[in-house]
Design brief:
The chain is an alpha+beta fold and 694 residues long. It is 17% helix and 34% strand. It has ten helices and 39 strands.
Length: 694
Amino acid sequence: MITLLGACNGGTKIAYPATEKDQTVDTYFGAEVADPYRWLENDTTQATMAWVEAENNVTSAYLSGIPFRDNLKRRLTDLTDYEKVGIPYKKNGRYYFFKNDGLQNQSVLYVRETLDGEASVLLDPNTLSEDGTVALAGFSFSNNGKYLAYSISRSGSDWNEIFVVDLATGRQMPDHILWSKFSGASWEGDGFYYSAYDAPTTGKEYSVMNENHKIYYHKVGEPQSSDRLAYQNPAEPKRFYYSDVSSDERLLFIFEAGAGSGNNLFVKELKKPGAPVVRLTEDFEYIYSPIETIGDKIYIHTNYGAPRFRIMVADVASPGIAHWTELVPESESVLSGAAVIGGKFILTYEKDASHHAYVYTLNGEKEHEIALPTLGSVGFSGDKDDKETFYVFTSFTFPPTIYSYDMDANKSTLYMAPKVAFNPEEYTTEQVFYPSKDGTKIPMFLTYKKGLKKDGNNPVLLYGYGGFNISLSPSFSTNRLVFLENGGIYAQANLRGGGEYGEEWHQAGTKMNKQNVFDDFIAAAEYLIAERYTKRERLAINGGSNGGLLVGAVVNQRPELFRVAVPAVGVMDMLRYHTFTIGWNWASDYGTSEDSREMFEYLHAYSPLHTIRNDGTRYPAILVTTADHDDRVVPAHSFKYAATLQASDTGDAPKLIRIETKAGHGAGKPISKVLDEYADVFAFIMYNLGMTPE
């Protein structure tokens, strides 16, 4: 048994499992770096599995000893148990949408003949596994209205399997595609293009480096072994290749990525037998995304020559970038989304991390702004020739709500609003701007109950990411409500490295600038304390993936600043991250330990695994979370980090690891597992912040 540590006044030190060390040492530019837990990288060995079981037993004993953990889960379950309806997609005269009755592990795909007609089930992922660990990863309708291709993920893995449904009968076709990854299904006639790797070595499916991505064409009804190889580039085995077919099935676009912050773009005319693949661009540092092809014009969303993005036009006859012309120029806000719906552009701009939407003509002239309910995030559905469109809007206290939109009248009408068991009128969100270490102004959203007193005693959960040009815009989560309704403040910082202010903002948090991201996050904590929102004894931090790296790095740099830290599925070994699965693809943001002595030294100086103190410095309470099927950020990162934490002299606050089984990086996780995980995470956070949930 384990004695539960007191949250605020100490307690008995936890007896962690003994983790064997080996003598592994790597040499980087003459510098020797020990890696004593290298054996934990072999996640399918009996020794590693025994270690996982022992760690989970200790963590489970600790968490089950928190008095309010079970009540917290019941409240989370009540908040989550509401009908969730997704935005309608109109395809070939029918309306498709996802719905979850409340606590279904996976949402179900329905179809209606008319918008207000009776709905019938088209695809229920809950029937694919007893425990909900098989999730729908993607879907695509054929342009001729005959078929639906859908992909599934098992246990949260990035590996996908693709299947086909006959839409006229609802019958499952015999088609079954294996070892697809980072791919959709792009239809041409009665077949589709998809990307896949060769079958990996047995036992290494979730850790081996992914190489030689290929594009195939699959004809419905034929076996995968008959699929035609449509494109490959064996000269560049570590690059991604994926495809998209224009809605008129005239053009095949091929994307090449993995060698920079952006992608290269190729095109092939499908109606001309023997037509070559034509290269349009030459620079991986920019993003090139075709929006729509209309006649001979290809509309492209890009940050080439415009760090905050613009819309360019290419001609099918001369599609190379040298011949592109500008249609919608760059503006002060980031053009984060573009679609052609009903013969017009709907453009989504990001201003201070919040969305604004506008209607433009195809000539690039702005017609009007679409009025949104408040600061938040928006997404649209609709086809280029269909005047009917819908959008979903959400914010921190605004559950995802669907509106129909009349483009000509510029009028939004409520279509579907969820009924969540909380009162949004009791909460408020404010946006503040605080100075980072170098004086850069950083935006941050704060959400809390109205009537908050800035007395320095409020519990705060500070969340960040800061990487890969990804923006953190407002979003809704019932999981956070348990923290808010018990007096907590949820703080979301928009750090450099993200995409909130375009490519310059992104680059300011990459490679040799990565410390800016950590400084921005530390400055957020210092601001919250200085402005008397909280104090360090009431401050918890959380982040996932690249955000897990963030949490691990700042805890090592400023351990005294935080009371609780929860790094989720984090990139913790910055010297070896590029040797697993698709880790090599992150080099554009991080650099690698093989690049140069300078880059190695920079990475080594902040790598969470390698900078854990061992001198008696008191660390916050730490709960590391990962999953056994995470093949994006492999669990070895968290395994080695947790083992090192537990073996180091960092004070008596708990240093635990929670390892989910039959789950991956996060996408598609069944609600039953989500509720268990968040009950554990928030119980750990709230207990160690000294909170007593009602």
